[in-house]
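Table S5 (text form). Sequence records supplied for joint modeling of the two-component complex.
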Amino acid sequence: MSVWAPTEFGWGVCYWMTIEGIPVVWIERGTALTLPDGFTTQDASLVIDHSSEVGQLIDREKGIGAGFPLTVQLLDTAAIRTWVRRASASSALTKDFLATDTTLHLTNLTGWPGSGAAWVGLERIEYSGTATSGGDPRLTGCTRGTAGTHARTVALGSMGAVASNLPRWWRGRQVRLYATPLTPSGAMTGATLADEADEIWRGTIDQGPERQGGIWQITAQALDRKLAVKLADAVTGRVVDTVARYPVTAAETLAVHVTCWNPDTTKLWEFMVQIAPYDGIPDGTLMTPAEQQAKIQKAWGDAVPLAPDLTGNGHSCSAILGDWTVYQTDAGKPYQEGFGEFVYKAAWVWLLGFKTSSVPLYNLVTIGLAFGAANLTKPICNVPCAPVGPCSISIFYSNGQHMVGVANDDQQILVAHSGLAVALDLPTSLLPQPGTLLVDGSPNIYYKFVMFDTNVAYFSYLYSDAQMTKPVIASVSPDATVRIGSTVPGKAMDVLLKMLESSGTGGAMGAMDLLAAGDGYALDAGVSGELSAVDAASFAAVAKGDLASLAVNVDVSGQSVEDVYTGLLALAQLGVMLRGDDGTGQRLQRIGLVSTEPGGSAWDVEIRDEHLLTTQQEPVASIKARDVPNTCTVTVPAGNAPSVVMVQDLSAMALQGKLSVDYTVPLSGILPVQMLTQWAWARLAAGQTEQVIELHLVPWLDFQPGDLVHLKLTHFAVWQWSTGTPGYTGVGRVLGNPRRLLDGAIVATILIDGQLTKEGLCPSATVTSFTGPAGAPTTITVEQRFYKHFSTTLAKQGTLRLRHYEAGLGNEAGGGGFAVTTVTDTGTDCQLSGLTASGGATLSSASWLTLPENATAGDYQKGFAHVDDGSIWG
Amino acid sequence: MAVVIGTNLTVSTEQELLTPPMSAEPLQTALHNANACYCVHRPPLVSVFPIVRQTQNRAISFTVPVVPSADAIRYACTHWLLGSFAASVPVTVESGIGEPPTWTSLYSGSVTLASGVYNSCDHHVILPAPSGCDRLRFTYTPPTGPFLVSSILVYPDPDPASAPIGTAAQMPSGFWPADDALLGVTSGPVHTEMLDRCWRNSIAVLRDRQQMVASWVQADTQFGGAMYATPFDNANTGDQWALVGKARVGLPYQQGTVLLRAAVLADVSSGATSKRVRLVAKPLKYTTTPPHVDLDATGHIVTGHLAATVDGTVDAGVDLEVYVRNISTQTLTLRAVVLHWCPGD
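The corresponding structure-token record, covering 1219 residues in total, follows.
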């Protein structure tokens, strides 16, 4: 039950507010109730009288919520004065402060008490001690993320890398406004302040606290407005060269085991040479293949003369094994002929030569090759050599990370090694990995790895496709400009959730918190808890079918969710917005996915004439609905070569003139584009007489944006196109529900039918089991998800009638039906009881239950799709 | 109106799908199509060009691992043979299950050959569900002279007039015949399950009809021994992988990783049987490590899954490479390698 429900009976509400990281409850009047966890004091200074209405409104053409801002005042109390002042202790960090750290290293501890609270960025930290040993001043025993904050990583070099004993930053802190019920006598109910409270608004501080006369004012933007805020910009730079560089490690070793066999299977000679070419070089040093070659050749040259003939035949290793040479295979060919099919273009080929014809070298030479600690005993290549004369074997070797192998050895890995060095315009070590390179005049290049040397970034493992299956050589001119973006491939809703959740802390905000810092909004997607800000389950529940599996490829750099997703959401008739949600067990404002589709059938709340508020204004007003186009263009960006899908209704254009809409969707692949054509047609097929109305309503109606409501209005300002009369009876989709704080009144925006009516299909439930005789069952069990529907139907109609059919058995029209008097949620199933069979209904393993035909259906059931009921498919 | 199993698909026009009134159509057409796909989706269960000596003039048989429909449906078989004589060649088809297999005769017939001409033998068989059939054996017994078995094709061809097509509860494959009767009831409900049944049936049929995407089959027992067996020309592979064949596997429009069911029938004369056969799925363009699967040569059907990496284009696919290895004390004979694809895997 909503906190507003009792207002119908003379109750009221008391507002209170929290600010992320400030352990104070700002409330309209003092309370004896226990404060929420992490909030230690209260201050009766909150004034909401000057705030305009707050709440949400969805823009169907953008698919993004446009929540209204909140402006509140705080009286000039002693409590507020303790917070709006300069910190008495403030010290810079001396080490990166990771989200999991419990020690905070500072330049000094001047002014810091032995225990207390510290603020770093937006985070509030409680520490239990201090220490200075080793010349390392620090706060110890840190409890991270207190008073409604999250533990965040703060890197040195950030303006936030300062700890203080009072907040330095206010902008960006979450503001959360709650309402707790007040009895008609003015008492607050519940065991704690939060116990029966609903969160009614949530956002982040945009301005303030600022002095306004003698009071303090805070202005905050709704949380869903963050989705229009652009994420971190792409880094730019200029190409230095296209030479691949790879890190080497001192411990890296290369061993070659060469054996020459006589035809009688005895060994003619055998050598084992092991070298550590990078010994003494700092780990991680970047080296080109040519530099690596020089190191390998040097180490090889030193080691070969010392290698004994393990057969005891006394052959000289130096006389048989030659040098290593290196070259890069042809970048223009997919395969380099003559070196085995596992050699790809531009791979680095290392040739180990066999030197002389003076030494017996015939039949089979087996080569064991190993890097590091790999097993040397297993020969991995056989080389049939000419009876006399030199020959060579190709060894593919790029670097220690990616040991490769020898020719014709299908067990080994070979990768095309290519690279690009870019001098960055702004030095940084926080480039996305993997990511995208947009080079002047070239198709996108996708890279897997990046490494840094001062302000030069070295990109390696370059591909021409986002799936990273097609290695490519960067064919770019030195000095070409490069934009380094963060490209996120995946399913449409997964990528959207990644943008919402990602904080750079690897999963702290939720399962999709996977992107780098700056590439997401760092919103908490926990399934429970007060901090949860994203209803991740709604994305799976609402975005079904094609949209759930749609493959996208999003360049998030410098873009917002609004920039990237509006086209897709608008075409799919979906919206991402803040809404009151009970999913965590308490009514919280969380960002979720809702439908913005006109029409439907499964409504909960009915709005009637007596719910209209007429005291301050006309209670019903018409709002312009979105245009219905006859041309729809969908652009799929793909680097420098976007593809465009356009559908045109030429007949309609001839009659009504061109009305066009353009969408951009970040798709990947071929089939989804074909699917988009169907969506574009659906956009053209929208009803041209759709109506959007604004209703001023009593506070106690409980509905949220995206919900379906049933309207039963006689007001002249709304029109029933199906009958051509004033008033409206039918289903509407809630697009917005802003609420005036002073009196709780709702200003609802609702989408209703025009000439076309779209209804939901009748639900149909498979009978999972039953008790009693098949022809006169005592109970019938169906899936739990049908409980909501069947119980709602029973509540609204007083009776629940269900048609029975046996799927596939050839008589689906003659299965009879059941009248149901009781619907029970067993916790795992939906159970129907109080059953009366009719029409010879007899249950079987093929039984299903759906709604009856209109002749025997109740009003609520008639609102669902029935044959020839005047509604349309859509 | 009731259960209608059509033999053709009816494609609705765009005009029929633009805001049509809530009526029987276009759902009724979709339901009929959902039923019709049971009959019209006919990917090959067996598509084999057997490796056989051209001079073969004795009885020859091929054993091919299969995964037939769970519904025990009818399949069409076509055998193409080339003879050097004009006579009738007996043809038999048997299904087998288990190790050693229990064979059941499915078909005994014949094809009349004319010298120097390709002739076909076309017939139907009803294949048991996978629990009763994991392989098919095709046997040809010429009365005289050399002949060539050119190809064998087996594909689903359910009989619309016979069980299990028609009225039925949900079939083992997951297919559930669609009934449009409720659409004929005055103001009858148009329910979600009708719409769901269209795609559920399509998916059920797609996944039930596993399709052979690559094959390499040679005779079970052949005069002079199987054509390909290691050691090759008396040269052992030294326990190293030796390439014996390649085939291109087309997986149009598939993207990412596709799992192919690999089945191998191979045996060794003695000694080690573990990981004697390797199948490699090489992407058509570039890759890092080509996925592979190693299978045993036990004389039984050995199965595994081979991951194919494909790019989603119309020409998506991989090159299958088949390798074998033997040690010096054994002979390895590869009888059959087949890849079946279940859409969605």
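Note: Residues 90-164 of chain A form one domain.
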